[in-house]
Structure formats: structure tokens, C-alpha cells
Amino acid sequence: MQSLKITSAPQAGVPERILDTLNSSIICLDGRHQITYINAAGEALFESSATALIGRNFTSLLSALEPSSIVDKLHLDDVDFTEHEAIITLASGKAITANYSIYPFDSLSDGKADDSGILLEIRQLERQAQFAQDELKQHQQQATQQLARGLAHEINNPLGGIRGAAQLLQRALDRPEWTEYTEVIISEVDRLQSLTTNMLGPGHGMQKEPVNILEILEHIRKIILAAEPERIAIKRDYDPSIPELTADRDMLIQAFLNIVRNAVQAIDNEGEIIFRTRIEFRYTIGQITHPLVLRVDISDSGHGIPTALGETIFLPMITDKADGSGLGLPIAQEIISRHGGTIHFHSSSSGTTFSTLLPLDK
User: Fold this and answer.
1) pTM to 2 decimals?
2) Which of 120, 278, 293, 334 has a 20 to 30 A CA-CA distance from 146?
């Protein structure tokens, strides 16, 4: 492959705005490995602004306890270098798997090369895998919705007839004790009709308005603590600077309530749930990259999700709970998807975290 010859670092203006659209982190270093430029994806990777990062030594952004081979490769002179599936541990302790490339360049001053530098490109493999997972999830959701609508239609039609016949039978019976059986029929028909309706998710149009995500989470917190005042403790880790979100308030309450109830059910005895809110920059959901994305993490101290279930937990009727309907998470995913967002999860034997991502207005 022909090596990339770079003669200068990105300058402010159009080239800089182009680099900000990339999902790869682009970082320019001078001869002393101090940062002279970083794009938006790089800001998101290191969870800091360009203003705070420019001028810092790049090695200060990496873990001192577990130095990465990327530091050694920065000392290669005039050699383009690429490493695949490298483990890079950041100063925060977070480890990422990435492909990275190093390109030496000559800095220009008044049209003349006066110093050498390095352009570093980091491509996170986790993010690439997440893109593919989101796309697969969208296809699964579309297929699930088509199946659910067809199933609900086929079930609801005879249920209506059964309910009507039971009501007529109830009025014709001359022995009051027999009406107990018709009431069972009617109540079970109502339950099944409610179940099939829930399979479709909310049927009404969205009523979008500016909403405060912290207010929604606090509302849900009160509901859960009212039902589980002693067994469940809910901790909060909020970012108070998060702007309002344009969304259907009632739908979001239903979606997050389903997620939190799932967390409550995962805790056998006493345990805790953590509500955490953060902002993500330059985050891609599906095929759209959003400048700002709201991330809401719901973490529980439960027993975790069985590995065999995997991503199928977002399909209707899939559950590991004896008394579960398997509809809570699919409905939550449907609501969040209608708002342009998505839900991811990470689970282990020590608990599960569901991360809900919703685009924010600029």
C-alpha cells in the first residue's frame, strides 16, 4: 500500500469541519508529542474538549500503569505505521480495542517546513461492531413489528366475539353462581386483548414537547420506591447540565419504567439500582451521526441476563422470569426507536446496565 505523505496538520476552516464529521479520532502531535489538533470524535474518546486537550502531552491521556505500545510507535521517524486490534488503556482506566495508524508530517510555517509532527488516527472496533449491531436490531424490530401486528389482528377478532358471547350468556343465566364462570371468561379476554395491544406498543401518535429527562427519572424513582420502599435502593448520578429533550413525555416514562421494572425483577432480595445521565458527542445511531446524544444508564445489582438470551431479550415473549410477559423491553425499544434512539445493554453475574441513547437538538 502506498504510504500517506502529509505536509501539514489540519488548519481551521473547511478541512477541520470535514474531520469533525469522521467517526475516527484524528489527533495531531508536534515533535514533543503535544496535541496541536483533535477532532470531535477524539474529544468524545477522551471525554474532554479540544480547548482542554490542545497543548497536553498525548501520553498523559493514557494509563501510566498499563502503557500502550502506541507510545513506542510514536518515536518511529518518517515511517507510516498501522496496528490492528490494539488494546489502548486510557488515563481514566477505560480500555478500548482499536485499529490505529501513525503518519509523520511536516508542519508548515509561511509555506516552509519548520518542524516534524505526527497525525494519529484511532478507529474503535467496539463502535464499528455497535454500528452493525444497531443495524441488525433495526431489521429485527421491523420483522417483529410485522409479526406482532399480524398476530394481534388474528387474535383480537375472535376475542371480541368470545367476549360478546360471554356477556350475552351472562345475562341469560338464571343462576347467579354460574355468572362467576362468565366473569372469568370476560376478564381473561380483556387480559389477552390488553396483551396483544401491548405487543404493538403505543398506538397513538407522539405528542412531542420539551421534557426534562431528570424530571422523568425522578418520577419513575418515586413510583419504584413506593412499591419497593425497603428492598430497593436507587442511587442517582446525574449530569445537571443536560438540556431539555424534545419527546413524548408519557412514552418516555413508559419506556424507562419498563427498563427499571426489569431491573427490579432482576434483584432477588435486597439490592440497588443506579440512574446515570451523560452527554455523548458525535454518536452514530443506525446510519445517522448526531452531534449530541443523551445517554441514560440504568444499572442494577441483580443476577444478570443469561448469555443464551443475548439480544433476543428485545423480541416479544422472550424472558427468563416465570411471571414475566416478555413485552417490557420490546415495548421500551419500540418507544425509544420512534424517538430516533436505541438501547444497548451489558450484563454479567454482578448486574446489568441498560444504556438508552436519544438524539438531542443542536
Assistant:
1) 0.58
2) 293
